[in-house]
């Protein structure tokens, strides 16, 4: 009887040691593959998310990657230094008002990014794709009025870019770019000159165009 009790106690003790180990492994696998941190500096507060383990994926040599290592964010070209930022990214001013709001995917900026000044005015909205500023963008002045909008490709003007100059009236200038290079508008042909002459002779009835001044704050 005594031997049976000793055997039962030994088995139960072994189970008591085994259960926490298996449970720990289960929980470790169940935790999402990312982590987070709150960094405080003289310039404000930064909320970051990053992968739980070091990422061993491929890194492009010409791309800038952002990583978290020992309570600091590192910006490196062509590789990682620590755990890549992954998920929501928030910068705040000392008064906790928003400064930057964006998203990272394995160390690369991705999706919609927004920037505010210390007065709470939205100054810029743009989109990023795989670490490159590509897509629609909008820039605002200190009063929140739209000043420029258009498209970017790898951080360079590409396509039609509209610039608003006046404050009270809409004075719009449009220019076309090809990967950062401005394309000069060709001079009017003879047919265009004839059309202008025809309009001057018969009243020059102009139709006012209402320019779309949407500020792109609803970029998704």
Automatic annotation (TrEMBL):
SUPFAM superfamilies: Histone H3 K4-specific methyltransferase SET7/9 N-terminal domain (SSF82185). It comes from the Bacteria. Gene3D superfamilies: Histone H3 K4-specific methyltransferase SET7/9 N-terminal domain. This is Toxin-antitoxin system YwqK family antitoxin. It comes from Parapedobacter deserti. The lineage of its organism: Bacteria, Pseudomonadati, Bacteroidota, Sphingobacteriia, Sphingobacteriales.
